Amino acid sequence: AWDLTDSQLDDIATHLGAEYRKGRELIPDDRYDSEVIPELERRLPDHPALTKVEAEPEEAFGTYTITHTSPMLSTEKAYTRDKVIAFVARVMKKAKSLGIADSAGLFSVKPKLDGIAGNDENDTLSTRGNGDQGANISHFFKIGVIPVGGRHRGPGEIVVEHNYFSANLETHYALSHPRNFIAGLAGADTLKQHHFDALNSGVVRFVPYDTLPDWAGGGEDLIAGFQVIFDRMRDSVPYLTDGMVVAVANPEIRAAMGATHHHHRWMMAVKRRGPTADVLVEDVRIATGRTGRITPTVHFAPILLSGANLSTATAHTAAMLTKRGLGVGAVITIERAGAVIPAIVDVVRPAKEVMTIAHCPSCGHEVVEDGEYLLCPNTAGCKAQAVNRIIHFFHTLGTANGFGDVTVETLVDAGIDSVEESYALTANDMVAVGISAGDSANLIRELQRSLKEPVDDWRLLAAMGVIGLGRGDSRHLLAAFPLEQVTTLTAEQIMTVHGFGKITSPLISEGLSAIRATLDHLVGLGFRLKRTPAPSDSVADSPVSGKTVVFTGAMARTRDVMEAHAIAHGATVGSSVSGKTDLLVCGA
After folding, report:
1. CB 3.0–4.6 Å: which of 96, 109, 117, 284 could bond 128 by disulfide?
2. CA separation for the pair 25, 5 (Å, rounded)
3. What are phi and psi of 283, to 5 degrees?
4. Per-residue pLDDT at 339
5. Pick from 184, 187, 204: which is nearest to 143 by CA?
6. What's the rounded Cα separation, in Å, for the pair 12 and 10?
7. Which strand (E) or helix (H) includes residue 74?
């Protein structure tokens, strides 16, 4: 719904995450979670922010040299009581399957400290780093950081007393956030006066998680006393908190629920939301994406909310307009945002006339329903779809830069509305449609580079934009079938590949058939394709044939190489431990 390409969204999300970990929060944390993360989930589900622990920039804290005994994962986040209720229900379902009752000690709740995560083990204090390895910051203890409860207690948080920060660092040194101070301390080559002041006052501490006060109880008690428990945890420590951490205390349930590469499934961080405001909807505008999906955005009079000027909010799907009574005249509650579009928290007063969508805003074609979405079926003649398809192709391929909104719109306006036509252009052709001579030369150079530079075949397939066939699924499919065969696969053949079900396989088969001529043409251009390893002739005799394997931890070889090797021997590679996991391969 944002006025961003996938490439721009990728860049912004990566930049915001990196700056946050350097101690520079460019937008509020809750905004990143409630707007950036959902947009990534919708458009870039394989983004590292969703699938991996977001690494701290090495230039901020130093090179990763310390390997954690156990991975330090991120924590799944929630901002509403309903999310906590759903989490408790998942836990109770798993507990029931294991024959475990909802006992008084089933859940543990601790305050969520708002500092820099660290790990004190093996005589070394390190940052969380990339989850597997962190930077050595043991010098913290030498310069005056106090280890609460003593040394060698494992994971914790590096924090500064909040009252001291407010009265001294914020007032006298104009520092904006305690986390920023800690990040600056960790990355400082030379300590500054405010660092010495705080260290000499004994207010900078490493607080192991096992020293924090906690609440213990059953699921029903947790839900019934949610707000009281939240407030108690917030006020239980002398450090800045931004919520509470709810975790399963029972080790058997923890083991059964497992983890993804990103977070433990048995733990959730419940956080506060930022400020909100009620606004009057003055307009509802719609846009068409590369697959024909139509997404609405509500517009309202600019409002300053906690330092940010806001005037738009995403409504996500056309169905939301009807369900929530959105339209001109509706009064909605929005959440505070920084540099991104805010979310609609609530509808205070529905519109007298709910917005309805009958035609594509780009080409005017009559729309059709597709579940929660409305679609423009004019695949061949819709400018918005053509522009977004070309942008998606080059972004996913990753070996040709320069094909952004303005350039691609210029090409499409001139009738060049496909990727294959783009590759047929000369610099003179581009100049003729209004692109400068310099930019035209650069674009041709980038097209040639994309043909010469090695690229994974699954990237080329994923770049084709077949609905239901993203990067991960493209890789799995090409591990079973060569690229030259995929456009002829039936739904039944696709279903033989692990992870492809009865619902998506027919759609993927239809989509692959529709791109046959385009894919054949592109392959014929001579891309230097790196083939996804196919099962060898001896797969049947392989000890991992038919097994689901999950890799975790720091490996001597890259994880991509090991996963490809496993696939080549008939294994299915999982992203996280589940009931289907046969083998868990752990690195150092």
Report:
1. 117
2. 23
3. -160, 155
4. 35
5. 204
6. 6
7. strand 74-78
Distance CA 147, CA 153 (A): 9
Whether residue 158 contacts residue 126, with contact meaning beta carbons closer than 8 Å, is answered with no
Contact 296, 355 (CB under 8 A): yes
**Left if phi > 0, otherwise alpha if psi is -120 to 50, otherwise beta: which for 23?**
left
Confidence of residue 141 (pLDDT cuts 50, 70, 90): very high
Cα→Cα distances 577→153, 470, 517, 564, Å: 26, 21, 39, 18
**Token pair 């079900």 is at which residue?**
501
Q: How far apart are CA 158 and CA 140, in angstroms?
A: 10
Contact indicator for 329, 351 with CB cutoff of 8 Å? yes
Rounded to an integer, what is the distance from CA 355 to the centroid of its chain? Answer: 31
What pLDDT is stored for residue 338 in this prediction? 35
Which secondary structure element, helix H or strand E, spans residue 46, and what is its range?
none
Among 342, 60, 13, CA closest to 184: 60
Task: Please report which residue ranges of 44-80 form alpha helices under DSSP H.
Answer: 48-51, 58-61
How confident is the model at residue 308, as a pLDDT? 64
E strand or H helix at 224: helix 219-224
Spatial contact of 549 and 564, defined as CB atoms under 8 Å apart: no
- Strands, sheet with 107-113, edge to edge from the N-terminal-most edge strand: 74-78, 263-271, 241-248, 107-113, 215-217
Estimate the share of the chain in helix, then strand, then coil, as percent rounded to the nearest 5: 40, 25, 35
Decide which of 306 and 9 is more confident: 9
Q: What pLDDT score was predicted for residue 535? A: 56
What contacts 537, CB < 8 A, 6 or more positions away? none
Contact 392, 461 (CB under 8 A): no
Q: What distance in Å separates the CA atoms of residue 258 and residue 576, rounded to the nearest whole number?
A: 8
CB 544 within 8 A of CB 516: no
Rounded to the nearest angstrom, the gap between the alpha carbon of residue 351 and the centroid of all alpha carbons in its chain is 33
Q: What span, in angstroms and rounded, lies between the C-alpha atoms of 184 and 413?
A: 49
Those residues with Cβ within 8 angstroms of residue 273's Cβ, 6 or more apart along the chain or in another chain: 30, 34, 79, 335, 345
Token pair 């507990």 in the structure block, residue: 95
Between CA 195 and CA 208 the distance in angstroms is: 21
H-only helix segments in 280-317: none
The letter for the amino acid at 562 is: M
**% of the chain surpassing 70 pLDDT:** 89
Which pair of structure tokens corresponds to residue 404?
A: 């952004």
- Residue 455 φ then ψ, to 5°: -145, 140
Q: Which residue has the tokens 């961080």?
A: 269
How far is the C-alpha of 331 from the C-alpha of 217, rounded, in Å? 40
In contact, 63 and 135? CB cutoff 8 Å? yes
- State yes or no: is 530 an active-site residue: no
Give the separation between CA 71 and CA 62, rounded to whole angstroms.
19
Which residue is catalytic, options 77, 94, 110, 112? Answer: 112
- Cα 213 to its chain centre, rounded Å, is 31
